[in-house]
């Protein structure tokens, strides 16, 4: 029996999607990328769904890409990617034309942060933290974050988030404009559901038109950013910096980038 990946619940025209790999801190493997992509596409096509609310099970929202699977992908030439994979999820997020609300219940790394660029409203638990670990993994940005984050929070805030690989607290995320509301942990889902219910009470046709109009100027630039980032990711993945980062992760130590070849 395959492990559960995504919980789906419908209530009052709101579809709640819960990332459900708590033992792996809801890290995205190929199967979870496929499951969330399918769920977003199905929600977009379902005339009974007005709003999608996304959260995580356990103590993490998402710890990003599954690094164990990333290492396998590099080492195994016969690795079989998913039907949609990471890029398919980014495309589904770009094309999703209904309100998307995030309830960030815990740790958010990588896609656990960059998905914010595609959300319409973001609620965050006061004890949650966010990070984009790209430079600490020796790789490039993802999910059009190099384009969307400067738009959302300004160039200098985005530069710090994308370049530093440092943790961002809930208070810092709110001050930057990365999230809309900070909630006490026990109130997070109730607050997010209240906002989702408000939107879901409006005509779906109108919600979709507003969302399409707001995102129309972004779609082509998202596509271009995704292509640039993917090119950089392909060039850097498996390189000396990424290899050191993955080895350090597997060995439970901090990576040491000081002895890399010049330019790395």
TrEMBL record:
<dbReference type="InterPro" id="IPR001753">
    <property type="entry name" value="Enoyl-CoA_hydra/iso"/>
</dbReference>
<keyword id="KW-1133">Transmembrane helix</keyword>
<keyword id="KW-0576">Peroxisome</keyword>
<dbReference type="Pfam" id="PF00378">
    <property type="entry name" value="ECH_1"/>
</dbReference>
<protein>
    <submittedName>
        <fullName>Enoyl-CoA hydratase/carnithine racemase</fullName>
    </submittedName>
</protein>
<keyword id="KW-0413">Isomerase</keyword>
<dbReference type="InterPro" id="IPR029045">
    <property type="entry name" value="ClpP/crotonase-like_dom_sf"/>
</dbReference>
<feature type="transmembrane region" description="Helical">
    <location>
        <begin position="100"/>
        <end position="123"/>
    </location>
</feature>
<dbReference type="InterPro" id="IPR051053">
    <property type="entry name" value="ECH/Chromodomain_protein"/>
</dbReference>
<keyword id="KW-0472">Membrane</keyword>
<dbReference type="GO" id="GO:0004165">
    <property type="term" value="F:delta(3)-delta(2)-enoyl-CoA isomerase activity"/>
</dbReference>
<keyword id="KW-0812">Transmembrane</keyword>
